C-alpha cells in the first residue's frame, strides 16, 4: 500500500508541477518588473583651425614718368634705372577659427636680408609695409621686426606685404650702381596660438 500511495503522490505532484509550468508559459505570472529608458541627445563637436597660406606675389612698375605705370613686371628681367620705382606685393590668406582661440602673428625678418651692390652702395631706397584686412574690409597696420606681435582677430582675413624700391635720380655722369643687383630675401610669417 505504501507503494500505491507513493505512486499516487508522485503522479499528483507531477500533475501540479506540469499545470504550474503550463500556467507560467501561458503568461500567468503574478508579478511584473517595471522598466523605463532614455538616451542622450547625439552631438558632434568640431575643431577650429589656424592657418596662413601664401598667395600670389606681383611686381608692378610705379615710375611716375613711365608709360607702364601700374603694369606688371617680371622682377627677374626688369632692369632698373635712376628714376624708377617698382612695387612688390604678396598676399597671405589667414584663418583664425575657434570660440576661445587667440592667435598672434610674428614677422620674422631675419631671412629677409637685403644684399647686392645696389644695396651695399645705398643706391636703392626701400620701404616695407604690412597690413591685415579682415573679412569686413577693415585694415590694420602690422608692426615689423623682432619682438613685435600682432594679435590676429578671429575669422578670415588677408595679410598684404608691400615693398617699394626706389632708384633715385643721381647727378649727371654718375655711374654708381650700373650692372649691379639688389637681392631681397624671404620674410617669414608665423601664426601662433596663444590661447
From TrEMBL:
Name of the featured protein: Alternate signal-mediated exported protein, RER_14450 family
InterPro entries: Alt_signal_exp_actinobact (IPR024006)
Amino acid at each position: 500500500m505504501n507503494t500505491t500511495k507513493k505512486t499516487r503522490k508522485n503522479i499528483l505532484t507531477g500533475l501540479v508541477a506540469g499545470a504550474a509550468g503550463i500556467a507560467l508559459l501561458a503568461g500567468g505570472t503574478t508579478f511584473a518588473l517595471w522598466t523605463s529608458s532614455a538616451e542622450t541627445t547625439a552631438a558632434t563637436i568640431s575643431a577650429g583651425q589656424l592657418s596662413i597660406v601664401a598667395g600670389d606675389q606681383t611686381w608692378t612698375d610705379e615710375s611716375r614718368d613711365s608709360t607702364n605705370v601700374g603694369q606688371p613686371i617680371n622682377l627677374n628681367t626688369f632692369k632698373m634705372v635712376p628714376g624708377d620705382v617698382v612695387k612688390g606685393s604678396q598676399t597671405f590668406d589667414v584663418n583664425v577659427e575657434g570660440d576661445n582661440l587667440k592667435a598672434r602673428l610674428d614677422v620674422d625678418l631675419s631671412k629677409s636680408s637685403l644684399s647686392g651692390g645696389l644695396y651695399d652702395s645705398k643706391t636703392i631706397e626701400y620701404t616695407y609695409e604690412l597690413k591685415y584686412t579682415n573679412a569686413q574690409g577693415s585694415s590694420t597696420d602690422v608692426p615689423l621686426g623682432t619682438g613685435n606681435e600682432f594679435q590676429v582677430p578671429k575669422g578670415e582675413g588677408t595679410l598684404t606685404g608691400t615693398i617699394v624700391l626706389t632708384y633715385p635720380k643721381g647727378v649727371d655722369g654718375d655711374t654708381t650702381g650700373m650692372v649691379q643687383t639688389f637681392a631681397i630675401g624671404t620674410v617669414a610669417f608665423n601664426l601662433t596660438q596663444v590661447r
